[in-house]
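ligand=fe (ii) ion
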Amino acid sequence: MTSTAIATARPTLLEGKALSQEVESISFRFGDLISNRRTFLTAAWTLRRQGIICLREAAPADLIASINSDVGQLLEEIESGEHARLASLAYLNLPDQRVLKGYNQFRDADRSVINYRVKRPDGRSGSDAGMIDIFHPERLSDSLNRNIQACLQESVIQRLLLLSSFNRMRVKCRNLYLNRGVQDTRSYHCDGRSLKFKSFVYLSDVQSLADGPYCFVPRSQRRRRLWWRNARFNKQNGLGPFEFSQLQGAEAIALFAKAGDMVLSSQRGAHCGHPQHPQARRAVLVNMFQR
Ligand SMILES: [Fe+2]
């Protein structure tokens, strides 16, 4: 370590039996959630305590297949370089041709926004290179609209969040993340200190660290002093206020899941996307809920 390096500390990623036990304790079958009141209450309470739950088989296979087929065509179109059709129905934010800037503009846009962050051969690619982040993917076509709405199960999730947080949460933004060999992911952080949840519906199986699973430190969303300790360190070392740079001694879980499973997470908690293998592919539908 050089004298200027900042001593950031990552949590321990649980593995093997410890990981499967921890994940099992926060997992529920989506079918049970909607048919059994007690499961619904337990899931809401678990989300409150742990900051994260996994809802297995939230979206049926045919729906996922149909979305993936539409997304595959979209990717081909993006990569073909013939963008006339896409440019007429979405904002195309390509590496050397940015039409919109910043999260708020993307979120408030009246059409889909396709953000393409490519890898640059000179290494100056910046964060999340290799990722295509599409805002409002449901506005790209009628079939995507139908299938994405069906996948996200918004009214069920809103009822669950109401019970879990005692707050009426609104859908603020839908995204489609297409990660292709994303290696420089942001380390553990929270998305601010206000109440915010995200649901992630996996469109592809994420079964190993190489696939780039979502990682989370259970219960960290409730640990105020942990956040303050991190914020103090960050301030002294010129890091952003929401980085979880000091997680020594904490344990994190990697959310391995099958296509169709949904992860529901409190974004106040410490989380990150695990770096992928250069050849790995991951597709996830994301929904952001805020008051
Ligand atoms: Fe985040």
